[in-house]
Amino acid sequence: MKIEPPYLLFLGNATDDLAAKTASGIAHWTPEKCLGQYRLEGCTVSLGLPDLSLEDAYRQGAKTLIIGVANRGGVISEEWIAHFKKAIVIGFDIANGLHHSLSDHAELVATAKTHGRKLIDVRHPDKDFPIATGKKRSGKRVLTVGTDCSVGKMYTSLTLARAMKDAGMDATFRATGQTGIFIEGNGISVDAVIADFIAGSIEDLTPDNTANHWDVIEGQGSVFHPSFAGVSLGLLHGAQPDAMILCHELGRPHMRGVPGFSPPELNECVELHEKMARLTNPNARCIAVSLNTSRLNDSEKQPALQQITEQTGLLCFDPNVDLTVVLKLLETI
Amino acid sequence: MKIEPPYLLFLGNATDDLAAKTASGIAHWTPEKCLGQYRLEGCTVSLGLPDLSLEDAYRQGAKTLIIGVANRGGVISEEWIAHFKKAIVIGFDIANGLHHSLSDHAELVATAKTHGRKLIDVRHPDKDFPIATGKKRSGKRVLTVGTDCSVGKMYTSLTLARAMKDAGMDATFRATGQTGIFIEGNGISVDAVIADFIAGSIEDLTPDNTANHWDVIEGQGSVFHPSFAGVSLGLLHGAQPDAMILCHELGRPHMRGVPGFSPPELNECVELHEKMARLTNPNARCIAVSLNTSRLNDSEKQPALQQITEQTGLLCFDPNVDLTVVLKLLETI
To answer: pLDDT 10s digit of each residue in chain B, 333 long?
Structure first.
């Protein structure tokens, strides 16, 4: 699954920022890949990118139209189809992060075939994955894990991979969700893989590498989440992480989407992750906690980091600040 | 997914018993559903059932032709297609437990449509499942879990469900793999569900029930297996078991299919299952160990059961013998 930049970001008729979360993630992390945005009538969201027509964007070099918008049910609106057909005829590939597939739309498939263009449904793997072997692979791996969903695993992985590269380390971000895939241009949407192949798909995503190379693997969900723990555990086993970074947000009344389920206690979370990870990598350990500070006042941040360090005995860091100390920990592995 | 009995069991060109494992499981557990077997030239395996032509089987009342044979890659052989087409024309539904789908075969799909018959790919769910909610459901649930794959989880579940019914308890076997689905006539092949919906599919399979009703849920894989732990954990969370029965076989040099991975220590296995299961059912506990004694001499069985009871402090039983003592344990829940 390879998505060709530069991108034109399709926002459809989005009227709230959350609906455009994927597009705004792409624009934030890879502005250099984003030539502009393409909005339909009624769209009130903006990414701050130039509004371009399909023709203008293509003339400026755009290769892929990205459906960077979400809606209830993950449906491809009928109203959008004419725009997508036009884009294909002009010369765009189309990449889609919704649950529903472009490839289920016979007309689009036919148009893409006629014009030699690709329809990329990032939630629908385009290949068969092997059953995981559990065999240890060469190279090093760090995986972000979480106390819950949406606590900052992608964010931490991206900032860390960037900091590692800036420091001259050999590192690759490995995307496991649709936004990460658009940002990186490839990856595997692990939550869409057939259950038997979860761990195998991650072995495939992070193959053998040179001894000093780091894969920075984006985690998904949480082994403590009653809806998604199976995905998180298969990902953990396939990743065979040497190091894990536990991502956390303070003050959640319950696990995301499931009232009545309390977030896990941090030390219990570290302990369980290490126990489970050691099935496929006996040296796996949790090296730090990444705290999502986005809802804290400036004055609250430092005490919160300090408190978690005392509680867990681990470095607790804010992924928005200098990561030198995290890199130093990785260098000891 | 509902498979209509009686069945005619298709054995294809199978030349070894292992290839016919699914068919022999069906014949063993539900002989009353199996009118006969249908074998092609070269087939050297027999289930001990009458060899029937398609016409004769249909005349005797058979409703579904079951592809109860496995082969390398789970492929539907081209040679079989003519037989399946003929079966459809005669009036059979066809049910398939292979990885490859009948529904990918345009000619069969067309024939089935013309004749108003069903093609049932039990490994390919015919519906969309919800995301698991984790909400506690009414009724009681017992789940078989395992130290490894293929240790006797289906076998134990089926014997237990049968013993419970014989004892007048209100119990339903819930199938989660293809052989179990053919035996029960319905169920969910959980290893084929999209990763995000593993736990949700099991919530769907074992819905709210009357207070004294027991679902006996067939486990899959093992949370200690590096290839399949994600499936096993999602199944565990979706099942919300009140009771778990740990299935085990002695003397495995390594976990199935993955040399280098030792089977887990029994007490560690009990402890981890209870810890994980309590996420969705705080009262979950492991009540017994079911020992697969099929490779033990008669004189070895009793000492082996005794040794495991001493080691774990749990009842250890042979699923081939009287299960009264297991039923008594369930009655305390």
So the answer is: 789 999 999 999 999 888 898 999 999 999 999 999 999 999 999 999 999 999 999 999 999 999 988 877 778 889 999 999 999 999 999 999 888 899 999 999 999 999 999 999 998 887 889 999 999 999 999 999 999 999 999 999 999 999 999 999 999 999 999 999 999 999 999 999 999 999 999 999 999 999 999 999 999 999 999 999 999 999 999 999 999 999 999 999 999 999 999 999 999 999 999 999 999 999 999 999 999 999 999 999 999 999 999 999 999 999 999 899 999 999 999
CA distance A215 to A170: 9
Of A223, A231, A237, the CB nearest to B196: A231
Give Cβ neighbours of residue A331 (< 8 Å, ≥ 6 apart): none
Taking one residue from A and the other from B, the number of pairs with CB-CB distance under 8 angstroms is: 121
Query: Which tokens sit at A224?
Result: 């403590």
Other CB atoms within a 10 A radius of the CB of residue A170 amount to 14
Count other C-beta atoms under 10 Å from residue B268's C-beta.
12
Q: Is A285 helix (H, G, I), strand (E, B) or coil?
A: strand
Instruction: Spell out which residues of chain A touch residue B233, defining contact as CB-CB under 8 Å.
Output: 223, 229-230, 233
Query: Could you give the CA distance from residue A173 to residue A186 in angstroms, rounded to a whole number?
Result: 10
pTM (predicted TM-score): 0.94
The answer to whether residues A194 and A182 touch, using CB atoms and an 8 Å cutoff, is: no
Residue B203 contacts residue B137 (beta carbons within 8 Å): yes
Joined tokens for residue A27? 């624009």
> CA end-to-end span of chain A, whole Å?
31
Distance CA B131, CA B194 (A): 11
**Complex ipTM above 0.95?**
no
Residue B93: phi, psi to the nearest 5?
A: -80, 160
Beta strands, E only, A31-178: 34-39, 64-67, 93-96, 119-121, 140-146, 171-174
Place of tokens 């736990």: B199
Strand partners, B120: B95
How much helix, strand and coil, in percent to the nearest 5, is found in chain B?
A: 40, 15, 45
Q: How far apart are CA A62 and CA A118, in angstroms?
A: 14
Phi, psi angle pair for B289, to nearest 5° = -115, 130
In this model, does residue A252 exceed pLDDT 90? yes
Give the Cβ contact number of residue B245 at 10 Å: 30
Among chain B, residues having any CB pair with chain A shorter than 8 Å are 131-135, 190-196, 198-200, 223-224, 226-235, 237, 257-258, 260-261, 272, 275-276, 279-280
CA distances from B292 to A139, A272, B23, B285 (A): 40, 29, 21, 21
Asked if residues B149 and B228 have their Cβ atoms less than 8 Å apart, the reply is yes
Please provide the size of chain A in residues.
333
Q: How far is A82 from chain B (nearest CA, A)?
A: 28
